[in-house]
Amino acid sequence: MKPATAMNEAVQPAAHLRLVSDRAAGDASGIKLSGVSKTYRTRDGDVPSLRPLDFHINDGEFFVVVGPSGCGKSTLLKLISGLLAPTTGEILVEGQKVTTPHGNVGIVFQNALLLPWRNILGNVMLPIDMKRLPRQDYLDRAKSLLKLVGLEGFEKKLPWQLSGGMQQRASICRALVHDPRIMLMDEPFGALDALTRERMNIELMRIQRETKKTVLLITHSIPEAVFLADRVLVMTERPGAIAAIYDVPLPRLRSLDVMADPVFTELVQRIRKHFFSQGALD
Ligand SMILES: Nc1ncnc2c1ncn2[C@@H]1O[C@H](COP(=O)(O)OP(=O)(O)OP(=O)(O)O)[C@@H](O)[C@H]1O
């Protein structure tokens, strides 16, 4: 068995649950973090949010981050999107150093955040209008994305005429419409009921497999993380560091039945132990 990179020595992986932090290092594609830390400077003093992080998300990988509340997950996503600058270190997206917000990513937040006065198609087209790209070139793509997520026929409806899950599906289309290579998703299904959330997970997995996007998703749900991910990064309490990175040794296209698979349940348990040993469980 490979040596664990886990900081928490109490959590040892079972033989078939490899820790894979050495996978594909040095590849110029995907997302690469080298020594990336963040300390917020506030009037009340410094708030160290992330300890120096080093990891690589592969091109086309579904990478999920879990961690205790306040450990710096959203901060991590904002750094990768270029909305925030790191205090130390360097982030490369597709080989390019991130210094400002960049067009390579589509971002999905916890709430759909659709503009109430724009219809669903208008909301999906928002990044095209904001980037002043030619509308005609993207209209068909917007419509086929809406079809892909089961919203065909709802193009002219206003957001309030759709359920929460439908609005969130529209916001995923909005994040995909300009064809970014990378999707950054911050607890995208946190506000949904359990059944809709399960359906959205299946939907998202299908979209990711079909479009071969690189996805970084943050969630508080360990089963959701294991269900969706190729790899799961577990963070420590603030200032967040890498507790462990787990490979998910399950078929890439999964149905909900996989949740009864012993490999699934064992990995969920193993990740949960990190939180118990840190004294914090969400
Ligand atoms: N703009 C800011 N100024 C000062 N401190 C901040 C700022 N944004 C976040 N923080 C602090 O940094 C830490 C990490 O915040 P962040 O939102 O990244 O955590 P999180 O893991 O996403 O939390 P949660 O799971 O609860 O959403 C928290 O302690 C938070 O209070």
UniProtKB/TrEMBL annotation:
Keywords: ATP-binding, Nucleotide-binding, Transport. InterPro entries: AAA+_ATPase, ABC_transporter-like_ATP-bd, ABC_transporter-like_CS, ABC_transporter_ATP-bind, P-loop_NTPase. Gene3D superfamilies: P-loop containing nucleotide triphosphate hydrolases. GO terms for molecular function: ATP binding. SMART domains: AAA. It comes from the Bacteria. Residues 31-262 form the ABC transporter domain. Belongs to the ABC transporter superfamily. Involved in beta-(1-->2)glucan export. Transmembrane domains (TMD) form a pore in the inner membrane and the ATP-binding domain (NBD) is responsible for energy generation. This is ABC transporter ATP-binding protein. It comes from Bradyrhizobium agreste.
